[in-house]
Amino acid sequence: MRVSAVDLPGVEDAANKGNLSAADAASYRTISRDLRNGANWVVGNIAGDFGPFKQQSFNPDDLTGLSFGDQRLPPEPWAAVRTLVEGKPVTLALVRNPAPGTIMLTGARARYLDDTGALARMFQPGELTQSLCSPWTHDFRDCACFYWASNHPDIALPPLPTPRPADGDPRWDLATPWERADRSVASPPVARQNGSQAVPEIAHHAINRDWQLLNFVLERREQLSDYMPGKFDASPLADQATLLAHLRYAAGVEIAAMQEYLTAAWSLRPADGQPEPLLGDLKAAFHEVLRIAIGEMRHVRLVNDVLSSLSTPGSFTPALAVAAEVPGTKVGTVRPVLLQAATPEAIDGFIGLEAPSQSVDGLYGRILATLQMTPGTDEQQETVRTVMAEGQDHWETFLAIKEWLGRHREADYLRDANLQRPPQGNAAHQELQRRYAGLLDRLYNGYQQGIPKGAPDINTARSSMLGAAGLQGALDAVAAAPFLVVFDPIADPRFAAIQPP
Asked: Is residue 413 within 8 Å of residue 269, measured between CB atoms?
C-alpha cells in the first residue's frame, strides 16, 4: 500500500491554523520531498477502529482477500480504509524504500462530508461509485451480460417497423441483443444463434457516443414511439360472494401451480458433475423453477390476506385447498392439474398458465375489476396487481427456461427418460405427504389466527419448507430413487380439492 502523494497546501494550511503539530508537518514535508526525488513510502502498518471489523492493527500487505470468523481482518486495503470510523484515531507506520526511514503518524479519520454536505476533498469525482453497476456508459459493456436488473434486459424483442409486419411473421418475435451494432429497423435484426451472444454489439468506446440509440424496452419489446399501455378490460364479478369464491379458487390455483412446478424441478438431473453448458443450464433452470414455486406460495399468502380483509369479522377461514383444475390457455377453459416431468410439453403448459391475460392472469383480471368497483379496497387492489405483475415475471422466466433446456435432449437433463410415480407404500413418498400436510396445517393455523398472533405458526411453516428435515429433504429423497415427485389428494376438508367457481 504505497503513498502516492502528499497534499502539501493542506499540510501548510493545517499547520498555520494550529491543527497539525510541527513534527507531523515536518514528516509530511519529508515524504513529499522523497516522492519527488524518486523514493517510495509504503504503509507498513495501520491501526484504528475499522467499524464492522472492530479495532485492528495489521500490515495491509498481509490481507488475503478473504475475511471470515471472529476478529477477522478486512479482505483488502480498499475495504479496510473505507470502513475506518470517521473521527476515530488512526495510526500509520510509514516505511521508506529504499531504507532507512520510518515515520509514525496519528490523526482522526477525516470526515466523509464537509460542513456543507459535500464529499470531503480526499474523494476524487466518481471514486465512491467506481465499482458499482451504475448505468454509466462503459458499464453497459464492461459489466458484461446479465448485470442488469430485470427491467433493463440484455436481450429484447426487436422494435416493430411502420407499417407493422404481417401477423404471424416469426422473425420479429426472436430475441436479439439490446446493444447490437446493427440498429436498422426496416428488416428484423439478427437474432441470437442457439442462445449465444454471437450478434455483433456496439464497441466499448462507441457506446460513449451512441448510448442514446438504445431503445426503451417495455413488455419485452424495444419501443420506438410513445408507449400506449394496453387497456385493462375485464368483466367484474356479480357480487361479493362470487368475489370471495373466486379468491378461494385463485389460492387453490396457486397451490396447484406450486405442486406442478416442484414436480418439474425435482425431475431435473442434479447439475453437479455434468459438462458445460448442461451444468449451467440445469442449475439455472432448477433454481428458477424453485424460485417461481416459492413465489406461488407467496401468492397464496397474499390472496389469503385479501380474503381476510374482505370477510366479515369472525367468518374468515384460510384458503388452502388445491384446485382440482387450473385455467387453460384460452379464457374460460380449464385443464387438469398435471404433475409431470419438465418435458418441453410441460414447460409449454407452464408458459400458458402464467401468460398474461390468458390463464391465471385472466382469473385475477376479473377479481381486480371487481375490487376497482368496491370502495375502500385500494390496498387489496395493489395486492392483486402485485400477484399479476409477478405472474408476468414467471411467464418470462419460463420462456427462458424453455430456451435453456431446449438446447439439450430430454434424456440428458431429466433424471430418467420415463419417470414414474412411487409405488404404493413407498416410505420416501409417504414421508413427503406427511411433511406437506404438516406444512399446510401450520399455515392454516397461522392464517386463521392472523398477525401477530399467528406469526409463530407461519414462521414455523416457512422454516419447514427448506433443509434436509423439511419439505426439500423429502423431495430429494423421492427424486433420488428416482421417482416422480407427486402430491396425493388430502382427505382433510381444509385442504381437499376445490372446483372452479
From this structure: yes
